[in-house]
Specification:
The protein has nine helices and 18 strands. By secondary structure, it is α+β, with helices and mostly antiparallel strands. It has a single domain, classed as Spore Coat Polysaccharide Biosynthesis Protein SpsA, Chain A (Alpha-Beta Complex), CATH 3.90.550. The strands form five sheets. Strands 3, 6, 7, 8, 9, 13, 14, 15, 16 and 17 form a ten-stranded mixed beta sheet that branches. A two-stranded antiparallel ribbon has the order 1-2. The protein has a two-stranded antiparallel ribbon with strand order 4-5. A hairpin with a 2-residue loop joins strand 1 and strand 2. The longest helix is centred in the middle third of the chain and has 12 residues, at about 155-165. The radius of gyration is 20 Å and the shape is globular.
Length: about 325
């Protein structure tokens, strides 16, 4: 039996006669979506930060990992799993300060309320996601471990659920689409069902940048990713991969993923995203707030500038 964790706050219902629609205001439904943070990478920064795990790089005296955990806490995500490799012991040692009684394992475990899985070698983003999500049965959230942002996770999840759900009965009817509430979480709604996995396998957050060189260039149309190019050779302005994804476990059954052997090294940016873009199976959510990748000197400098603004209202 699957038990969904649901958080319900004050509810008010009102009816609008044309078209008939249910409006639920103040209703907070949280399904306990698993979050995977890709924290196994090594930084390319020079100097004293050269050998520091990305997650432990300090910004204004606070490790990047703490900012990411604060973001998840803000939006009530508490089912978190770290994907680790490079200097995993340092990250776990840091978390153990919060949980002195935790027993640290070299493979998998839990510390300070956070699950972790340690890869035996660098697996790339694709290999890390495949390893960390192999036991998951429901859609899950992925965060790159080198991102600092005030990203609105509520809006992202709402966008995803609205786009992957449709009326359970007469889905092609515009009338049915107007009267069936879109707010019920997938899987427990008597009125809505998930669209076919052949149609949508996930969602990617994108961010507009003046220079996409060194990042994933994303072209979108009608809320879908239609082209994905990792690390363009020339300087462009446009949307970049913002490092936040909602992915379906069905992704592991795609040809590229299923062909990979256990612990095989591969990048999801090269193996999966271009294929999903070609088939238009990946939703695109535009983030217009603060964002930076701390993997470069320029990105780290930007992080220092935006960190004080993270909690300001957008």
């Amino acid at each position: 039996m699957v038990i969904h964790r649901i958080r319900i706050a004050e509810t008010r219902v009102r009816f609008s006669p044309s078209p008939l629609t249910f409006y639920f205001t103040g209703l907070k439904l949280t399904l306990g979506m698993k979050v995977i943070i890709l924290a196994g990478g090594k930084t390319d920064l020079s100097g004293k930060l050269k050998n520091t795990p990305k997650s432990l790089i300090k910004i204004k005296g606070k490790p990047l990992l703490e900012y990411q955990l604060d973001l998840l806490k803000k939006y009530k995500f508490d089912d978190i799993r770290l994907s680790l490799h490079y200097k995993a012991e340092e990250i776990l040692k840091y978390l153990k300060i919060k949980d002195p009684k935790a027993n640290i394992s070299k493979k998998t475990g839990k510390v300070a309320g956070i699950e972790y899985i340690v890869g035996t070698k660098p697996l790339g983003t694709g290999g890390a996601i495949k390893l960390a999500s192999k036991d998951l049965k429901k859609d899950f959230l992925v965060m790159n471990g080198d991102i600092l942002s005030n990203f609105n996770l509520d809006d992202f999840i709402k966008f995803y659920k609205n786009n992957v759900s449709e009326p359970r009965f007469f889905p092609s009817s515009s009338f049915m689409r107007s009267i069936t509430p879109a707010i019920f979480p997938l899987g427990i709604s008597p009125l809505r069902k998930r669209v076919s996995y052949e149609e949508i396998l996930g969602a990617m957050a994108v961010y507009y940048d003046q220079n996409v060189r060194g990042m994933g260039l994303v072209k979108t149309k009608n809320n879908r990713v239609v082209k994905f190019q990792e690390d363009p050779e020339y300087q462009y302005s446009g949307y970049v991969n913002a490092g936040f994804y909602v992915l379906s476990p069905q992704l592991l059954q795609t040809k590229c993923m299923s062909a990979k052997k256990k612990d095989e090294v591969f990048a999801i940016e090269e193996c999966i995203f271009p294929l999903l873009a070609e088939k238009k199976q990946l939703l695109a959510f535009v983030h217009r707030g603060l964002w930076t990748d701390i993997g470069s000197e320029e990105g780290l400098a930007k992080a220092e500038n935006i960190v004080e603004k993270l909690n300001e209202k957008e």
